[in-house]
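Table 4 source record.
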Amino acid sequence: RTTLRWSSMDRSSSANLVYGTCSNRERDIFQRSDLQFPGPLAEGNPVRIPPDCFVHVMDTNKKIARVLLGPQNYTLLACEQVVFGPKKLIDLGDSWFCIIQNPVVKNGDTVEHDENGAVKLRFGATEVRKGRMAPFPLYPGEKLEGGLGHFTVVRAETGLVLRAKIDIVEDSLGLPTKRIANQEWLLPGPATYFPTDYVEIVRVLLAIVLVQGESLHLEAEQAHSDAEGVSRVVGEQWLYEREGPYIPLIGQKVIGKVVALQTNHLRALHLCAKRTFVDRFNKKRPAGSHWLLTAEDTDTYTPFPAYEAFMGFAHPTTLTPTQYCIVCDVAGADGQPQLGKRQLVKGPANFFLQPCETLLQGEIFDMILLQPEDMVEVENVEDEADIAIGQKHRVLGPALYCPTLAHRVLGVYTALLNVGDWHMLYFQRGIVRVPAL
């Protein structure tokens, strides 16, 4: 941009500008907003003020300046001089605004003056003037802050964080709301923000997009109501699981995204409670407890990092029709281990061991297949209805024998037939792998 310097003009051009007899080109230069008078003019000199322009004329005796609007030719008195201008009137379009420092005091549309004729100013204050108003001048003492600006358009999936400078009642969200000084709030898009005198823009927030299976881990930095209307206290943490864009509210801290885990018939989720809490299935989980979530409980599950830890995937134990196993420290209905309790599981079966459960000797055993000439000898280790502890008995084939928790296998024998004068049967002991009860 070019600034007209008076030193670069000859006396005739300067005089023409002052006295009003100027060419079209000189008139265009004269109407530039950055053109100012070179200083005090002599008494009786006429000042030509173009249309849509204004100047500040000061009474040097009273040291009071006043505004003169164009178009007009004004003859300066001996005690007057031009101290500002000519400047173009500020003309705001429909979507423009400006901020005025030290605005004048108005009573309706009338500017107030003191007893000496000087305009009254609100020193230290600012005033936002919006479009759709008549072009206006700057009064003596007023300053234009930052030039003209457009209204702020808040796009979809974005938000504008606003802050109140003083205690006010504003309606940026459509309803009159009381705000205290330094209070911040969010204006979500799509919307158009109209600047006001006592509200400032802090920052612009971008929405976090959540796809299927994702959740947002949030923490409350101050007491507030979240997007679903739930009251949150300081330090409280929760998961936001709704799909789509989400703009964190004022007072919410985003810790991170959490991805949901899937379960099926081949894997379950092994979880551990970091602290005592009630999970989403309304079950109380004491701190330090472990449990499994299978496909029967849920297809997908999002662990809450503040309360539970994901320990890994658990895989099922599979038994064929000729296999069995013994589960030790069987979990009760409350999920707690029953130390010393054992359970016999026969195949075919497919099940998950609870975190507190183990297999006896960590193995799966084969049932004993007895042919017609085979038998198995067992000893009772627990009382039964008709057999005492320590009593031995035999099970003859053919049969598929599965040892029970009350029996200990002593051996498996095969019968050999001896043909002679004395027809007799005797058994030869075989080898079989059985659990050590």
